[in-house]
Amino acid sequence: xxxxxxxxxxxxxxxxxxxxxxxxxxxxxxxxxxxxxxxxxxxxxxxxxxxxxxxxxxxxxxxxxxxxxxxxxxxxxxxxxxxxxxxxxxxxxxxxxxxxxxxxxxxxxxxxxxxxxxxxxxxxxxxxxxxxxxxxxxxxxxxxxxxxxxxxxxxxxxxxxxxxxxxxxxxxxxxxxxxxxxxxxxxxxxxxxxxxxxxxxxxxxxxxxxxxxxxxxxxxxxxxxxxxxxxxxxxxxxxxxxxxxxxxxxxxxxxxxxxxxxxxxxxxxxxx
Length: 272
Ligand SMILES: C[S@@+](CC[C@H](N)C(=O)[O-])C[C@H]1O[C@@H](n2cnc3c(N)ncnc32)[C@H](O)[C@@H]1O
Known about the structure:
Layout (H helix, E strand, L loop, with lengths): L2 H12 L10 H15 L10 E6 L5 H9 L4 E7 L2 H10 L4 E4 L14 E7 L7 H11 E12 L5 H7 L2 H7 L15 H10 L2 E9 L2 E4 L2 H10 L4 H7 L6 H10 L3 E4 L2 E8 L2
Parallel strand pairs: 1-2, 1-4, 2-3, 4-5
Antiparallel strand pairs: 5-9, 6-9, 7-8
Helix pairs in contact: 2-3, 9-10
Bound molecules: S-adenosylmethionine (SAM).
The site of S-adenosylmethionine has 23 residues, from helix 1, helix 2, helix 3 and strand 2.
């Protein structure tokens, strides 16, 4: 997926709605990531200030939650491709130091700094984990940690199955839904392998499968298009412009849907 397209979608479609967080999937996932940091003893007020770099920090949801939860002082930095998402983050975190750029260029930013925590949360569908892993290693202080949170291609099984209905294909084109390249990696095993190969020691890892409820087309579009979860896919097949009669067919054939996402959360330490 082209980064100019992603940037436009986040600036123009998603930023204004992102914090509504339909079904609390982002918020609940980030809370679990915070639980892992807390359990590892990294949020203790006895420790010196924590320098944090959030890659694809979006509206600053994680950094704000981290600051609220942590007894330890937080010094927040971030990089994001979307100026609009970053503008919201700056409202929540007035001391945030941010760069607006593609995360693949990470090594061109914060060159003099070393971090105690680097976060990549729901961004590795855009910035490949294999590319970013050695660059995160280089940005971390010895003993610093990487908080990884990302949806896998094992998510949305039921939606993927129903989207393969012949009538849906007839209405919205014959291409089968392809989530590869939009959501990755493929599994927790894959994340753990990449991190270990790049010199990280795994502290905690889990796969979280929150239930998703889509009673009708409208709730699906709020989540998948405005909420940012499947915006490129929705635009690609034109679902966001579905006419009233098309929506009625979708409501009859596809919805309601109860589905699950599949989200990997891994906390890993940079080995000495
Ligand atoms: C799903 S949001 C996640 C935001 C935040 N990490 C969170 O968990 O709430 C993805 C974020 O990554 C940003 N993004 C997308 N592609 C990017 C890229 N190539 N480089 C940097 N940021 C990117 C988007 O602008 C958006 O803010």
